[in-house]
C-alpha cells in the first residue's frame, strides 16, 4: 500500500460517521454527486480533455475521455482526479449547491464519507488535508490526535521522490515558519492580556499573522498550528 496510514485515516472517517445508518449515507452521497454534476455542467473544463481517475502508480498514458462521459472530478484538471479533491475545491470556492450540503451535514461528515468510498485512489496530499481536518476537529474535543508525525513523514517521502519541485526551498521556508509560530506563541504567553487565551484562539491569531497569503493560509489548519505549538507536527 502506497499510503501506509490509509487504514488509520479510514478509521478516523468511520468514527466521524458513527451513528449514521447506511440509508442516510447513501442519500448523502446521492446529494453530493448531484452537486458535483451541477458543478461539472457549470464549470467543468471543456477545453482540455477530461483526465481519467487512476491510482498514483498508474503510469499508462491518458486516453481521450469525452466530456459527456467524464465524472465531475475528471473535469477539474486535477493531477489525480478524485471526489475528495473536488470536494475540497468546492469547499474552498464556497460553491453554493455543495455549501448547502456542508451547512447541513458538516464538512467533516462529507469528507469522512468520501474518504471511506474513495481513499484508495486519492492523492496523498488530499488525504493529508482530510487528516488535518479530522485532527482540527479532535483537537477541539480532546486534543491532538495520534499519528500526525507519521503522516508528515509520508509527505516528506513524497518530496524526496521528486514529486514536488523546489522541495529543499519549501522545507527551509517551512522551518522558518515553524520557528516564527513558536516564537509568536511564546510571546503571547508572556503578555498578561493574551496569556489566558485558549490554545485554539492563540493558534488562530498566529495563523492570521504568519500567513499573509490567503491561499497559503488555507493549507494550514488551526489543528496544524496547534500541533506545531505542542511539538506533535
From the N-terminal CA to the C-terminal CA, the straight-line distance is 23 Å
- The value of Rg in angstroms is 19 Å
Describe the sheet with the most strands: none
Q: Please state the structural category.
A: mainly alpha
Query: Strand portion, in percent?
Result: under 5%
Task: Report on the architecture of this protein.
- With 233 residues, this protein is an all-alpha fold.
- The protein has 2 domains: 6-159, no CATH class; 168-226, no CATH class.
- It is built from 11 helices and no strands.
- The protein has helices at 6-16, 22-43, 83-92, 96-105, 107-118, 124-142, 148-160, 167-189, 199-210, 214-219, 222-229.
- Helix 4 (96-105) packs across helix 5 (107-118) and helix 9 (199-210) packs across helix 11.
- The chain is globular and about 60 Å long.
- Mean pLDDT is 78; it is low at 55-61 and 141-147.
Amino acid at each position: 500500500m502506497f499510503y501506509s496510514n490509509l487504514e488509520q485515516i479510514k478509521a478516523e472517517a468511520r468514527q466521524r460517521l458513527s451513528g449514521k445508518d447506511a440509508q442516510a449515507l447513501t442519500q448523502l452521497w446521492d446529494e453530493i454527486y448531484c452537486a458535483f454534476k451541477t458543478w461539472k455542467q457549470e464549470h467543468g473544463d471543456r477545453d482540455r480533455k477530461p483526465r481519467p481517475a487512476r491510482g498514483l502508480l498508474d503510469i499508462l498514458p491518458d486516453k481521450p475521455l469525452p466530456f459527456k462521459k467524464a465524472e465531475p472530478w475528471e473535469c477539474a484538471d486535477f493531477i489525480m482526479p478524485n471526489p475528495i479533491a473536488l470536494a475540497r475545491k468546492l469547499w474552498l470556492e464556497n460553491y453554493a449547491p455543495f455549501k448547502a450540503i456542508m451547512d447541513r451535514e458538516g464538512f467533516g461528515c462529507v469528507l469522512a464519507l468520501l474518504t471511506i468510498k474513495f481513499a484508495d485512489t486519492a492523492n496523498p496530499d488530499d488525504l493529508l488535508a482530510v487528516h488535518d481536518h479530522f485532527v482540527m476537529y479532535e483537537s477541539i474535543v480532546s486534543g491532538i490526535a495520534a499519528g500526525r508525525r507519521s503522516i508528515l513523514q509520508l509527505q516528506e517521502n513524497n518530496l524526496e521522490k521528486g514529486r514536488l519541485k523546489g522541495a529543499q526551498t519549501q522545507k527551509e521556508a517551512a522551518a522558518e515558519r515553524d520557528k516564527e509560530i513558536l516564537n509568536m506563541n511564546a510571546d503571547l504567553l508572556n503578555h498578561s492580556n493574551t496569556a489566558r487565551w485558549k490554545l485554539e484562539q492563540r493558534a488562530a491569531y498566529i495563523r492570521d499573522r504568519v500567513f499573509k497569503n490567503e491561499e497559503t493560509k488555507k493549507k494550514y489548519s488551526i489543528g496544524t498550528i496547534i500541533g506545531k505549538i505542542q511539538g506533535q507536527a
